[in-house]
Structure prediction request, 399 residues.
Amino acid sequence: MSGNPRQRTRLISLEPDLIDEYGHYLSFNERLAEACAAAGIEFIVLAGKQCDPQILQDHPFIRPTFKLRSWDAGVVPSSPLAKWQFGLELSAALSEVTLKAGAGKTVLFMYTASLGHAQMVEKLLRWRGLTDVTAVMQYFRIHFENPLRARFVRKWAPFLQRITAGNRVRLVLPTAQSAQRFEEAFGFQPSLVPHPSPAFSDARARHLSAAAVAERSSSTRIVFPGGVRVEKGFAMAVDAAVHLAEQPGIECVVRAIHRDGVSETLETSLAKLRASRCMIADQTLTPAEFDSFIASADVLVLPYAASHFGERTSGLLVDAMLLGVPVVAGRGTWLGDLIDQEGCGVSVPLTRSSSLIEGINQVLGNLESYRAQTAAARIRYLENHSWERLLDDLVSSSR
Prediction:
């Protein structure tokens, strides 16, 4: 990364959902902090006000700021006051940062943005006259909305035209799939940003990609890490795991972590899992322990629903690829498309659990070949997806 144009740049990550270690919010910003430190760029995270005190103590660059989660502040259509609260809290935080840190270019980045968030940030920059502040808003919430609706297009087209003509707020998208749907609605494609692994720094990812394919044990271990979530195919995962665990020499491990209460359907699947020969992973793991958990698999299974992951990325797929573990996932998803493109596993139609089982058996039947293909895929992936590339893309907005 060239140093001079960015010497006085600071990057501020807007992360209202960062309150604990759940999800990738913390690890994503830890990796971004490492990249900023290497580039000599000041980095600040504006997190949820309920952020765990231990996280704040361990990460001085994280500041508790937002009372509402990103969904409530920018997605729920009936909460205009919530959007203003988000804007006022951001405005106060920017005043504090500028006062303490002094002059310089500031780039705001929101990973989980909606068009509502982008609109509020654009209004704030105009209202405050913050000429040294720009924003990069990733339209992550596109998979929860339907931009092809005529009413949606009429509502948002003028705003999108305004920010596209200007240089203060840049809308970006996470996947080619979401960009295609966006273009169908609005007639143009925002740029895509790199999607590095939240689990691994660039140095660690390069080390993994250069490592030889590890020796495997005599037993076969199949890991289902998605957790107790309908959209992550928990019921289908349990059905497949229970069936496969009956076969000699196969060990199935199902992650059974859930944050909130579960539905009756999921409770039925949990009961079926408890009564089976599967191993249940229901303990909270440290990041290092979770990486080891993924690396222990011969095959990783991610039966995520196309309704939620058709246009949405998965850090677990990238992590598995970097660790050399082939993946089985559903067709019609970002995961399945990447697998088909790179050959790092098998994509299957998620119409029934037997299709998932067939895909797993396909990988197991030619495991060494799939492991070699996965090792080659991770090298290609890192050419375009690194923390350095992401940071360079973000701070280029300050030029």
User: Anything to note?
Assistant: Residues 1-6 have pLDDT under 50 and may be disordered. The domain at 203-384 is CATH 3.40.50.2000 (Rossmann fold).
